[in-house]
Amino acid sequence: MQPAMLGLWSLLLLWGLATPCQGLLETVGTLALIDKDELGKAIQNSLVGGPILQNVLGSVTAVNQGLLGSGRPLGGGGLLGHGGIFGVVEELSGLKIEELTLPKVSLKLLPGFGVQLNLHTKVYMHCSGPLGALLQLAAEVNVTSWVALGVSSRGTPILILKRCSTLLGHISLFSGLLPTPLFGVVEQMLFKVLPGLLCPMVDSVLGVVNELLGAVLGLVPLGALGSLEFSLATLPLISNQYIELDINPIVKSVAGDIIDFPKSRAPAKVPPKKDHTSQVTVPLYLFNTVFGLLQTNGALDMDITPELVPSDVPLTTTDLAALLPEALGKLPLHQHLLLSLRVKEAPMVTLHNKKALVSLPANIHVLFYVPQETPESLFELNSVMTLRAQLAPSATKLHISLSLERLSVKVASSFTHAFDGSRLEEWLSHVVRAVYAPKLNVALDVGIPLPKVLNINFSNSVLEIIENAVVLTVAS
């Protein structure tokens, strides 16, 4: 990289990292606050291997072995074990690094830069060269690295190793004889060799963590409705306790076209993050978008016939005549009714006062029919259903289930006599609860996808409904 380009990148990086979130979400994006403990766990987990790590290491790592190898902590053919990169030590001095203890990870977030990462480990060595075959010793080593937080060419958050050093601690002799002057020789050799051997380990660890951070850009299917894609809206920000990602949700149709639903202009005031927790804030926009997709795809429409309703739900002209004789006129009794329910406008979701409500406007066309004959219209109603939304998080999405709170109707047109439509509200509410609400909940099985951030599992998170958003908080 040219010096001028490096200087420009550094300037952009420092500008993006300088100011942490003040708690007011002005955009419609999904806000993720990653606690430093979660980053520490991701780094620690990367040291014990796994499928992602195998892909990063490629042929360097033996089959079914992680970065640390098998058997004892870092022995047995892994990147740092027998046959790995530490074999070069044997060529230098006759010493061979046999294993390392699982490094202890500690980190500190550096506002305006990134992360200071420390790995403390113990190196076990034996000698098969001039120093004697029975020589076994161990040395404590602390690896300190300075890691910048930025954005990759793919637009994902990325950790970049900027500087790495090692500090050699106490050297212990377990077996064999090592004259005191040779201790200094071994110590000097380790000072020269260990940085070149342990700092690549840090790079490998960061590669695994960057794969996890990169998963935030995954394309999430929304069933037959389309898909949702997350991207970074701004450069990542960093404070003393957490990393902030402002994630922009992009909704696409099945054909791949971007769908832009109206966005709320009202900001959401995000509550302060507690220590040792991570947060994801789901904006009102995503709720309205999911319901908007359901409406435009016709998933909220339904034809309700007697075959679809339970036996205790009245759906004949006889039942209607008992409720409102003038609505039936002179039409015969004992005929089946058909309710043609159509949602012609997008539902509106309200997140307010710890409640989630959905206002769903629907046209209800009431018809009667004889089987195998064409239905005949009785009247049309304009209705507004107010549904209470129950929200439940899982590992990958926010689930929504609806129950009817109230329904109001007005007569739009009648082919018999004029009447007061409000007298039908109780009857229609019964039908909606028994038949229509379960259909809505099946359609809502797509849920609202949550961004994948360091594989944080929000299934046991605390859910809080705030003004214009939902906040999920999980302990680190």
UniProtKB/TrEMBL annotation:
Keywords: Disulfide bond, Glycoprotein, Secreted, Signal. The keyword NAD does not apply. This is BPI fold-containing family B member 3. May have the capacity to recognize and bind specific classes of odorants. May act as a carrier molecule, transporting odorants across the mucus layer to access receptor sites. May serve as a primary defense mechanism by recognizing and removing potentially harmful odorants or pathogenic microorganisms from the mucosa or clearing excess odorant from mucus to enable new odorant stimuli to be received. GO terms for cellular component: cytoplasm; extracellular region. The keyword Metal-binding does not apply. It comes from Nomascus leucogenys (Northern white-cheeked gibbon). One of its GO terms (molecular function) is lipid binding.
